[in-house]
Amino acid sequence: MPGYTFELTIMDGNPDSMRMIIYNPDGSIYFDSGLLPLSSGDFNISNDITLQYQLITSVNPTISGSVTPDCSAGCLYDDGTLATLSANENTGYSFSDWAGCDSPANNICTMTMDADKSVTANFQTCPQPVRIAGATPVYYSSLQAAYDAAVDGNTIQTQALSFTEDLNINIDKSVTLEGGYDCNYTTVTGNTILNGNMTVSDGIITTGNFVLGN
C-alpha cells in the first residue's frame, strides 16, 4: 500500500505505544501491524511529517545526451522543493524540448515538487557537419567533398568540430569557408579545427573561425 511512514504515540499513556503507522495521501491511516485502520482521535503525532515526492528523468533518444541531476533511478524531494534540471547534448545531437516540465526555458527545466513527476529531455539528430549554404543547403560529411561540389562564390559552413582529413584547394574558383557553427547552423559557437594539411594550388579560399590543428 503506497504512502508515507512516520512515528506517532498512541494516546493510552504508555511509552511503549510508539509505533510505526502508514499515512496515505487520501488521508487514511493504518497501524503497522496487519494494516489495521486508525481514526484521527486515536493518536497524537509526535514528529513533524515531511512529505516527499519522486522525480524521474529520462532522455530521448537514450544516447543523445543527459540530464543533470541524473534522476533516471528516481530522486526524492521534500514537498514544495524547487527542482532545477539541465539538458546536456552529446556530439551529433542538439536539444529539442522538454516533455512533462512545469517551467521549461531552453535547456533548463524547473519543477515544483508537489507530486510524483517524470520529465523527458528530447534531442534531435544534427545534420551532417558540413554544408554549402543557400536557400536549399546541401550537406556533406567531409570538407573535401563540400569543396569539390562548390561552385565559384559559394560559402561552405561547418560545425564547430574537429575534422581529420587533408583539404586540397585545387580548382579555379573562389570559395568562402566559415567554421564554428552550432548543430543547426544558426550561431557561431567556436572554431572548426582541421587536423590535417590544407594545400592551395589553385583558386582562392577565404576562411573564418577555422583553425589548422597541425
Give descriptors for this structure:
21 strands, mainly beta, 214 residues, five-stranded antiparallel beta sheet, disordered N terminus, five-stranded mixed beta sheet, elongated
Structure in words:
The chain has 214 residues and is mainly beta. It has 3 domains: 42 residues; 74 residues, no CATH class; 83 residues, no CATH class. The protein contains 1 helix and 21 strands. The protein has a 5-stranded antiparallel sheet, with no helix packed on it. A 5-stranded mixed sheet has the order 15-14-16-18-20, covered by helices on one side. The chain has a 4-stranded mixed sheet with strand order 8-6-13-10, with no helix packed on it. The radius of gyration is 30 Å and the shape is elongated. The protein starts with a strand and ends with a strand. The N terminus is likely disordered.
The strand count comes to 21
Alpha-beta content class? mainly beta
Q: Low-confidence segments, ≥5 residues, pLDDT <50?
A: 1-13, 42-47
Distance between the termini: 65 Å
SSE blueprint:
Elements: E1 4-10, E2 18-23, E3 29-31, E4 36-38, E5 43-45, E6 52-60, E7 65-68, E8 75-78, E9 81-89, E10 93-99, E11 103-105, E12 108-113, E13 117-125, E14 130-132, E15 138-140, H1 143-149, E16 155-159, E17 162-163, E18 167-181, E19 192-194, E20 198-208, E21 210-212
Parallel strand pairs: 6-13, 16-18, 17-19, 18-20, 19-21
Antiparallel strand pairs: 1-2, 1-5, 2-3, 3-4, 6-8, 7-9, 9-12, 10-13, 11-12, 14-15, 14-16
